[in-house]
Amino acid sequence: MYPFPQTIAPAVRTHIDAQTAFLNDMSKSMFSSFQQMCDLNIQLVQTMLEETTLAGRQVLSADRQSELLSAATARTQPAADKLRAYQQHIARLAADAQVELARVTEQHVQNTTRTARALADEVARDASEQTERGLRAQQETVRQFSDPFMRAGDGAAQAQAAGGSQSTHMPMGQQASGQQQGSQPQRAATH
To answer: Of 17, 44, 57, 124, which one's alpha carbon is 20 to 30 angstroms from that of 143?
Structure first.
């Protein structure tokens, strides 16, 4: 059911919880910075619309060209100051976001590193145990295949005990050749 053995599952869960907490805090920090940036942009747009509306009123209410030029130049300086303040706010937001991300990272990196190390140790330990078990099983299989007569000898001993017909403990091939040797002198005597 699980991709990891039961002994590793608690270490995986702890590491995933640490990673999730880290990613959640990073997401909250980034979302907060993004929200502040959006609020700043909305504020800039509102301010620029107000400035444009005031400049438009002054241009429409101007009777002479000189009043028109003075109204336009009078609104240029405040607009430039507001754009400069906007740039300063953006720089401050970027610096604050970077500080916040560094704080969140510092807060979570030790715990995440510790759980990752514990998970790696657990996986390595479980893998070495699995390897050792597999190696023992392979060695046992090789031992059984390298000495196939060990089992046959045990079976022959059981057959002797059950049958009782053969009194010697010689293997079957040697008993047959012993019987043939005993019968050969008899043939030689008849000739």
So the answer is: 124
Q: Which residue has the tokens 């599952």?
A: 9
What is the predicted pLDDT for the residue at 151? 55
The mean of the pLDDT values for the chain is 77
Q: What is the spatial distance between Cα 122 and Cα 8, in angstroms, rounded to a whole number? A: 6
Model confidence pLDDT, tens digit, residues 105-114: 998 888 888 9
Nearest to 15 by CA among 120, 115, 121, 110: 115
Task: State pTM to two decimals.
Answer: 0.55
Per-residue b or e along 104-117, where b marks 16 or more CB atoms closer than 10 Å to that residue's CB: beeebeebbeebee
Secondary structure (DSSP) of 159-182: HHHHH----S---HHHHHHHHHHH
Token match 């100051």: residue? Answer: 81
d(CA 115, CA 110): 9
Q: How far is Cα 33 from Cα 30, in angstroms, rounded to an integer?
A: 5
Tell me how far apart the alpha carbons of residues 186 and 191 are, in angstroms, rounded to a whole number. Answer: 9
User: Using an 8 Å Cβ cutoff, are 49 and 112 in contact?
Assistant: no
